[in-house]
Structures are given as structure tokens and as C-alpha cells.
Amino acid sequence: MQYIVTAYDGTDEKAIERRLTVREEHLKSVEKRFEEGHHLYGAAILSDEGKMIGSMMVVDYSSREELDNWLKVEPYVTGDVWRKIDIQPCKVASAFMELYK
Length: 101
Fold this sequence. Notes:
Strand content: 25-35%
CATH superfamily: Dimeric alpha+beta barrel
Strand order of the largest sheet: 2-3-1-4
Shape: globular
CATH topology: Alpha-Beta Plaits
Largest sheet: 4 strands, antiparallel
Distance between the termini: 16 Å
Number of strands: 4
Oligomer: single chain
């Protein structure tokens, strides 16, 4: 099942520092999960000033439990970057899924 994960960073003065501290670890994690077929798409959410304030991903996991297991080890979660996470089930159009075959 596919999900849209929208995650917002903290808004305190140390938020960007926390993000940058674990960013490389996060990107390596995403790359691994992309290769496994779990992460389909992702982007940083930017403020009007162009500052990173969150993340959006479309992911594919066999269950919500499997998605939750990923979040338990996601560097932006364990590194206290994401403070609010919204998860919505979705269905990616088949034309887009052809890109991942």
C-alpha cells in the first residue's frame, strides 16, 4: 500500500541544526529504501524564504505496521528533526508506477 508521509520539522532555533546533523544519514537511508522499492518519491518542504522546514514522501509498504517500523529507525525521527508527521494512504497512478519497474 502506498502512503503520503508529510513530516514537519520543529520550529525552535535548533531545528535546522538537528536536520543538518543527520541529513547525510537520512539521505543514505532513503537511497537504500528507494532501491528496495519502499520510497517512491520525496522532497524537502521549504518555507517562503527557501529554508527546509519538513519533508514529503510517497512510500510503498506492505502494511502500516511496516511503515511504522521504518519510522522507528528513520534518522529524522531518531534525530528529533520531525516533530509532526501526517500519514495518509494513497494510490499512485499506474503510469507513475511504471517508472519503478
